[in-house]
Amino acid sequence: MAAPAEPGHSPGFKKPPALLRLKRKRPGRRSDPAVPAEAAAAPAPRGSAAARRRNPFSSLDNAPRRAAAAPQPPAAAPAGGDPSTAPFWQFLEPACEEKPLGREEPAESSDILSLSQDLHSPLAVPKAPSSPRQEFPADWSIKTRVLFMSSQPFTWAEHLKGQEEAQGITQHCRAAETTLPRSVQEPRLCTELRCAFQQSLLYWLHPSLPWLPLFPRLGADRSMAGKACPWAQDEALQQVLMSDWSVSFTSLYQLLRARLCPYFYVCAAQFSVLFRAAGLAGSAEPTAAIAPTTRGLRQAMRTEGIEFSLPLLEESRARKQKNSEESLETETAEGLGGSSSVEHSGEPAPSDDDDDGNFSWLEEMGVQGKVKKPDTISIQLRKEKHEVQVDHRPESLVLVRGSNTFRLLNFLISCRSLVAVAGPQAGLPPTLLSPVAFRGGTLQTLKARTVSGRARVQGGFEDVYSLEVLGPVLPHALHALTLVLGPAQRGSFRALLSPHEPSAAFNTRPAPPQEDVQQDLPACGLHPKTLDQLSQCPTLGKSSLRLLEMKDYTYTWKA
User: What does DSSP say about strands 431-434 and 263-267: parallel, antiparallel, or unpaired?
Assistant: First the structure.
């Protein structure tokens, strides 16, 4: 029971029961009509920090939404007022944009925004776009995901009939060429288009283990962890798998030499190898590219008598030497350089005084027995420090030409480092990827799905459709898909490409430009236009395509 106010006590004093009742009413103070008046009469606190104090225990998920926050204005169009010149992925919005915030439901149409953001991470910002061309350059890197986007729907790529799927497989196995018109008015009713799409999604793989992700293999220990690997502790089973793999590997190489297979990949746990037939990539002889490599692997190849080159490293050295010579000529012309500048220009050459282990200067100082001499291995590593520094980097790309590719075949079959001895990939042979059939190969299909979304443009939104292709997208598959999408999407689409970064070094030029390079690959199983593209000399260097756009049947790209 409440006692009357006593003299000497504050009239605002409340007893414990009244205080508890006051705490219960605090969540509903906004409904109390007296509160606004008290709040208006109360003086404003000093400083902005007192006005807005952040709760240290709040997070992005439980932070209260500000009802009075102004909506964000749409992305401004570039100078000139044409929104089509701005990057396409900046305008992407989920299809449920106009729904209230209180009812956020996951929808398939919102995946296009997350997919485009994943493909264009800050680590892979493309360079300036190229000028429009009738054909885009060959990209020898393997794509893990490709996202095609267009204002025309991709419904023609959904729910292929059994007959269309069978026809596509037959065309792939028989290397049948499909000729499509420049523009298809009704893509969903065009059987030839749907069969050609199925044909472009096929590739060959060895070994075939459906429960294991066999690509990529480099850095894939986390994705393979916890998977069933019965061969990990069974040496007999490992020998059987390796023997079967050797037969498939040899079969692919024989097809390559006979020019019946244009190229194939060997994806191991530590490195990848790209074998190309004569006539591809501007080379008149077979080539094999290995990336990334280490000093130990290169030394083992030298021991086996395999001749190779390091084109990226040699190019870098030649560029530095040229720059050094140019700077030296400039200094000499200006009269600033003398004999001392000539002797000390450029990088100092590594000293070879200690190659024979001569440490006579220690005897002259009288400390020969007190100082520990470096061993031979340390001396060798010091001499080769410039070569060791490129290990596991794109500059460590090794290029093998001609008959040395056969020595490389035998070396890889007997190479111990080709198969991991520990970890989730222990005892598992490398993955073989090929565009044509070979002994022991398994026919696989790339995963494709369609996604719808909305794009923000001036004056509102417009529907945007996308087609996502997952899996090891080989160079011929990327070009075959563009040949299908051009007529189906009326010559207008964009493609966001996510390459397997270690394979980007395969875009290095394997040989100097040659005029008379005979292709002579009519029966290699590729479309003639695809074969013409892959026969061109690579121009991307150690980079790869990130964005490919077709507009009015002409290509622009960013790398």
Answer: antiparallel
> Is the torsion defined by CA of 371, 372, 373, 378 positive or negative?
negative
Name beta bridge partners: 463.
Answer: 454
Residues 432 and 302 in one domain: yes
Q: What is the CA radius of gyration of the chain?
A: 33
| Whole-prediction pTM | 0.71
Cα separation, 360 vs 362, whole angstroms = 5
Q: Is residue 542 part of a domain?
A: yes
Shared-domain flag, residues 279 and 399: yes
Contact, 199 vs 192, CB < 8 A? no
Nearest-angstrom CA–CA distance, 419 and 266: 12
HEC readout, 290-349: EECCCHHHHHHHHHCCCCCECHHHHHHHHHHHHHHHHHHHHHHHHCCCCHHHHHHCCCCC
Final residue of a structural domain among 442, 475, 501: 442
Averaged pLDDT, groups of 10, the chain, 559 residues long:
53 66 60 47 49 58 47 46 46 41 39 44 49 91 95 93 95 91 92 96 96 90 86 91 96 95 95 95 93 93 94 80 71 56 41 50 63 65 68 92 96 92 91 97 96 81 91 96 95 95 92 64 88 92 94 93
Q: Are residues 398 and 281 in the same domain?
A: yes
What is the extent of the structural domain holding 460?
A: 130-202+445-558
Element at 387 (helix H, strand E):
helix 385-388
- Amino acid 380 reads Q
Does residue 91 form part of some domain?
no
Residues 410 and 545 in one domain: no
Q: How far apart are CA 474 and CA 415, in angstroms?
A: 26
User: Would you say 177 and 480 are in contact if contact means Cβ atoms under 8 Å apart?
Assistant: no
Q: Give yes or no for a cis peptide into 216 (omega within 30° of 0).
A: yes
Same domain, 476 and 551: yes
The reply to whether 258 falls in a domain is yes
Domain count, the chain: 2
**Domain presence at residue 485:** yes
